[in-house]
Amino acid sequence: AEDVPLGVYARSKTSTQSKTFQLTTLDQAVILDECQDRCVESALSHGNAAQSRGAPTQDSSTSLERPSATLATSSLSPMSRPEVTLRADQYEVVLICDLAERKDGYSGQIVEALQQNGVKLERRKLHVGDYLWVAQEITQPVPGQLHRPRGRELVLDYIIERKRMDDLALSIVGSKDRYREQKFRIGQSGLQHPIYLVEDYAFTACSMPEDRLMQAMASTQVQHGFFVKRTRSAQESAAYLTLLTRQLQSMYSSITIQSCTKEDLGERKKGSRAFYTDLLVFDDFNESAVKNKALCVSELFAKQLIQLPGMSAHRAAAVLDLYSTPRLLIEAYDKLITDKQKETLLAAITCGATKRKLGPKLSRMIFQMYGKHGPLK
Q1: d(Cα 359, Cα 98) in Å, to the nearest integer?
Q2: Is 98 a catalytic residue?
């Protein structure tokens, strides 16, 4: 079953009026621990202790502290040499906001509040996510040029998808199933710490029952490895983004970072407390996330799999880890003798942070799709 206590989505008590931002117990877990160790049991224990829906979180605020993060060893192969290396005094942490977050209207309130909070913010077209952070090289002025040249940029391992509650409902029930597709694309981006920021704005206008929305958010966190953060307004979302920006600036204030390729990311272990200093170049990251680019066979295979009922992005990714193309899967089926063996070939595959098995139902459905002729049964 996918049910988890809904208290895991405790609301923040962060004040947007005070100039001195503070973290609640749950927010501190998000920034200082959750971003480094996505432990489901810990998240559930926070939720059970925090609140039932509508009740405030316990008042145990604590001011920002620098985390004692453990640096990971480089994931680069001994023979490779990074194209970009930046010392701590050569870069600054900048929040990047997608152009879809408009300057006017509801989204504009967040951008305006971030600027009032003194957050260094740049607006660009992001092909995946709504907010992320880059380590931007500090450059010197060039004589005869009005603006400083933009320095080299590496993407930090944190990305946020922001949803109003009414938009979340529409993305789930829509014909294009944006909800699953967006989560899958973020999961494939290579960034280790995805965050789903859900605002309760227009909750009464939702086209979906509340319990189904709660269930969708629960599976997003527990099954798909996102951290789900709920806020009550644009101002509270801006306060949360401000806190997270300041914490990342603190975390990387004395760290030398270097560039890596997406292939190098395969060596990383999700859920580790260590945060990594090998980071993707922003232009490479954003280009690889283009939605309508020509798909390779593995990407097309994944998009086919997630159309199956009950097949999440993490389950599809687990299948691709073993069989990256339909041909490899069909060849594996051909090596087995009976249909029974073929139906259960994928059943024991473990998926996502919870390590749950794919199960016989989905395994049988995939076999019927790729290993047999005729309609699915």
Answers
A1: 38
A2: yes
